[in-house]
Amino acid sequence: MKILYINSLYPPLVKGGAELSLQQIVEGMQTLGHEAVIASLHPEDTPITDKVNDVRVIRVPLKNSYWPYKDIKTSSLSRLSWHIRDRKNTAMGQTLRQILQKERPDLVSCHNLAGWSISVWDQAQAAGIPVVQVLHDFYLLCPNSNMNRGGTPCEKQCLSCQALRSGHTKASNKVSAVVGISQSILNRFLSNGYFAKAKKHVIYNIRNAADAPSGRKRNPGQKLQVGYLGTISKVKGVEWLIHQFQGMDIPASLKIAGTGNEGTIAALRGLAKNSDVEFTGYVQPQQFLEQIDVLVVPSLWEEPLGMVAIEALAAAIPVVTSGKGGLSESVKHEINGLICPPEQPESLAQALICLFQDAELYNRLSAAAPASVSHFLDRDRLISEYDQVYRSVSSSTAFTT
């Protein structure tokens, strides 16, 4: 089977975990004998074709007002204009039409479509090629892909998102199968009326991990090394974590690793003044995890999956989390971690104090953690599940509009 994968970026151009997960899927499909081709965007003015680990990658120019994947400030008007065009970018659709005519794939596997837009669904339908849409983020519901405004999570689409995503629900009927990287993200789209006629699947992304340790041991009264790893922002719950940490009267330190808006980080540094809080900047995840006893993932928004929690659990580190979105699908309360609802803000400090005071509980959670996420580390599982989805739709060319 020849599969054309469509994503905004492809390594070595990487913005987040979606590109790395896609690379694992693509290379895995090739090991099964499928032919994989990537269509992605790049900031140059002309198309190029290269190879990444024997996978052919077609990189085409983005036909919009600016390249969004670099750290430049744009005006609100410029961003609005970009998103209006990206609602249904027919110029990018024409680019894909040319690729489809040349490559003649048996199936199109869509991933993050920012820049491409849902015009790709139109072109695949016109060519009679079935489409599998994989949901890595909320782009198809929210132009910013994250369902939050000003650091506050959105419980539903705001008016601007409704306007910029009008028609998307009906257009999603052109998709033969939809895959959520968690049940949570799939449910979010289904509850908004998307993909009503598509076959529905959940396939968890994977992470590579070192050999699972047997577990970590804590002694009663031992100083608790608390860690946070990820984007430093309000919606990620970092402010909540700092407030709760400062209210604890136990021997503990907090390391905050990651990057974010400079103004936000400066404000959080000020909030953490006079307490045992260290901002380490960017670090290699495995090196960071070796330095902590517990990872806190206090996200206030619905994480599509939350791979950082899975990486910690694979390293036998218990996770304290809000449980928002896909986080509750890997972190199980009192099995491999503790869940603290943001609606009960004091629950976060209480959970950390509990792990400090109850070494037996900590040791039990740590020992159970690696096996609890073995499913998320199984590359053969990931590839087999995608293969089954692709085969189930590859012969389907009938679409309903």
From TrEMBL:
Question: Which domain of life, per UniProt?
Answer: Bacteria
Pfam family for this entry, one = Glyco_trans_1_4
Q: Which InterPro entries match?
A: Glyco_trans_4-like_N, Glycosyltransferase_grp1
Domain Glycosyltransferase subfamily 4-like N-terminal, by residue range, is 16-205
User: What name does this protein carry?
Assistant: Glycosyltransferase family 4 protein
Originating organism? Algoriphagus aestuariicola
